[in-house]
Amino acid sequence: MRKHFTDPAQASRSETKMRELRYKGDTSQYLAELLELNTDVTWTGPSFQKLIARALPKKVIELVYSKRGVLPTLDQEYLQAVGEAGRTYELMQEDDALRTTRHSEKGEPDSISGRSKSGQLKSKDKPRPHNSSNPSSKDTPKSRFEEKDRKWTDFAAALAGVNKDAVDQRKKDGKCFRCGRDHHTLVCFAKKDVDGHELPTPPVKISSNKKKRSRDDSEDQPS
Questions:
Q1: Pick the residue with more confidence: 103 or 97?
Q2: Average pLDDT of 163-181?
Q3: Lowest-pLDDT choice from 50-54, 88-92, 119-123, 192-196
Q4: Which of 71, 157, 160, 176 is deepest in the core (most CB within 10 A)?
């Protein structure tokens, strides 16, 4: 009787709204709005149930299956089962959101990235600091060098005559204290720094062979 007296235009508008109706996080609200619109359309059976299944999260329908083993065929039973599954799904979502919030507040790491919600590495994954007796190991980009490459006996010798303010700034920048470039201070042989200032020349190193030859020559000379 109701279908007989329903305005066809109104039924068409309600059908369009039913197709466009979207789930917004509350299954009960979605079903209530859908049933109200359906009073003009009077959909029933598989087509009506498929419309609901497409609109709701896939997990809701999976919960119906897991609980009953099959989807109900009668509309009333289907609506009841979907409503219950929807409430279960939404409680699960709330619980996950609450757990995530707690982890974020505590800075606890997640299991996938190994990082906390604040982006910090787990303690066991943090890189260990490099300990070195070299005074510039934490200040220069290349703290290790081959002994054969050393141009200066110590830092005092390397920095003699170098502007102190420039040295302090280069320490902060992690550059060579002497010239401001990317290498270790004790291997620096630059004649000018990055600002174009003249630098003291490193002392000429004499090899052990040359030293030995020099000693031999002096011994051979007549007294």
A1: 97
A2: 87
A3: 119-123
A4: 176
Whether 89 and 64 have beta carbons less than 8 Å apart is answered as: no
* Amino acid occupying residue 101: T
Domain-wise residue ranges, the chain: 2-106, 147-210
pLDDT score at 175:
85
Contact 200, 161 (CB under 8 A): yes
pLDDT value, residue 155: 79
| pTM, entire model | 0.44
